[in-house]
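User: Could you check the structure of this?
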Amino acid sequence: MASEIAAGDGYRLQRPLDPRRDHVRGGGVADGVSVVAYSDFLCPYCRRLRQVTKRLRGAVGDRLVYVYRHFPNERAHPGAERMARAAEAAGNQGRFWEMHDWIFDQELPIAEPRLLEFSGSLGLDMSRFADDLESEATRQRVAVDLEEGRRNGVTGTPTLFVDDVRYDGAWDFYSMLEELERPVAARVTRSARAFANLPASGGLVLLLAAAAALLCANGPLGPYYAAVMQSSFSFGPTGRLSLTFAEWCSEGLMTIFFLLVGLEIRREATAGALTERGAVALPIVAAIGGVLAPAAIYLAFNRGPTAHGWSIPTATDVAFTLGILALLGQRIPAGLRVFVAALAVVDDILSVLTLAIFYAHGIEWVWLVASAVAAGLLLMLNRWRVNAIWPYALVAAFLWFALHGAGVHGALAGILLAFFLPTQPAPAVGPLLAQAATALAALEHAESELKKAGAETTLAQEPIWDWASRNLSAASARLLSPADRVETAVGPWSNYFVLPLFAFSATGVRLALDSSQPGTTAVVAGIVLGLVVGKPLGILLASWLAIVARVAIPPEGVAPRQLVGAACLCGVADTVSLLMTDQAFTPGPVASMAKIAVLVGSVLSAALGAAVLVAGSRAAARTAADA
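Assistant: Sure, the predicted C-alpha cells are below.
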C-alpha cells in the first residue's frame, strides 16, 4: 500500500551531535545519553521545559549530554532571532551557556539595554560582541540551525531528539527521566520505534517471515510446519466455521490488511493522489496496463485448468517496492515515489475487485443477502454518526462470517468496513487549544493551592484531576477521526504481525521442483515472465500511450530510465499474489510451483529494478558533473 512510505526522515536526526560545532553541556561519561533540543529563547513552552531539563541534569549528572540548537519563531515571538544571535555572539567569546541561562531566566520582554548590560557583566569584549551580534556569519549560524530543524521535521518548539531519535513522549520530569535512564521496557519500546521508522522495515520483516517459512518447510521442521499449517480450528455451536491455520491467516487475519487497504484507497480518493484528474490519470492507466500485460503473458502459456491462475502475476507488493526506493535515498526523485504510491493504490483496488469477482466459490444467496444487511448496518452507523469503534467491529465480524458463508473471500469485509468508518473534518485549533490550556491551567492552579495549604493529599486525588484528564483526552482524541484512530492503531499490527504471519503460512513450500503434474512448467513460466517482463512492459506501454494521447502527464522531475526502473520494481510480488495462488489452485504441486515462481519472479524484478535505478542515478550524476 501507499502508506508503506516511510513516515519521514524527521524521526531520526540527520546531523548527529558535533562537539566542534554544537553547543554541548555535560558529557565525558562512557554511558552518556544525548538530548538535542531545537528551541526558541522566547517560547513560553521552552522556558517551562528548561525547568525540567535542570532537574534532569541534577538527577542524571554528566551522563546527560544536552545540546542546544536554534529554532527561533520570529513570527510568533518577535525578537527570538535576535536573542539567538546574542547567544551566538557570546558563544564566540566562550560564554554561550551563561547567555543561554540568563535569557531563559529573564522575564519578558528583554530590553536591549538589559541585554547589553548583562553582556558587559560577563566581561565580554563589547565592541566584538556588537559586531558579532549584527554580523552575517552569526545570522547564517542561526539560519543553518533553523533550516536543519525543518529538514528534521521540526515544526514547533521545543522539539527533542534523544540519542538522535525524536522524542514524542510527555515533557514531565518522570517521563523524560525514564527515557534517559532506559529501563528494559523503555529500551524495547524505543528500539521497536526506531526500527519501525526505517524505510524498509515492513518489507524486511515480511522477507524474514518468508525466509523462515522456506527454512521450516525444507528442513527438519518440515513435518511439524505442515502439521501446524493444516491443523483445523472450529468456531460456532456446531463447528460450522472450520478453517485450517493457514486459511485463518489468509481469510481471517488478512481482513486487517484489507481494512488498511480500504482506508488508504479512501484517503487517496478524497484528499490524496487520486483526486486531481491530470495527476491521477497516469498511475491509473499504468496500473491497468500492469495488470493486463502480465495476465496476457500468463494466459499465453496456460490453457485449460491452469488458466485460472492468471491473476497471480498481476499484484504488486508495494511494501518491498517502496522499501527499495527508500533505500536508494536521495537518488530517487520525490515524483517517482508519488507515482509508484498512487499506482499501488489503484493496484490494490484492482486486486480487491479480482478477488471479489473471479474467486467467489459457489455463491450462497442467503448469506449474500445477510452480507448486504450487514453492509446496510454499517451504512446506518455511519449515517447516525456513531463514532465509537466497537459497533462497527461487531457488525464487521458478522459481515466477515456472512461473506465467508456466501462463498466470497471473508477478508473483503475489511474493505467494506474501511468505507463506512466515520471521518471528521479537521477541527479548528483555537477551541481545542483553549480547552487543553484551561484544563492544564486549572491543574497548575490547584497544585499551587495545595502547596500553599500544605495539604497531604496529592493533586491526582482531587476532583479537578478527573475533570482535567477527561478534557485533555477529548481534545487529543478530536485530532483524529474514528477512521484515523483505527488506521493508527491497526497499522503496526498489519505491518509487523498480520502480513508476516500470512507470509509465513503461505510461502512455506518445498523447493523440490515437481513438474510431474501437467501444466506446472507453463505456470512457472507464465508467472515469472509475467512479473519480470509483463509488469514493467504493461506499465511502461500504458504510460507511454497515455502521455502521447495527452490523457496524462509524466511525473515531474522523473527521467525515463528512472521510470523504467520503478516499473521493473513493480514486478516484486508477495502478499496478494500468494493469496491469489491460494484462491486459484488447490494445495498440491501446481500451487507449490506457483509460489516458488512468485518468489523467483520477485527476486529477479527487485534485482533488475534496483540495477536500472542505480545505473540511472550514476548516469545522471555524470551528466550533471559534465554540465
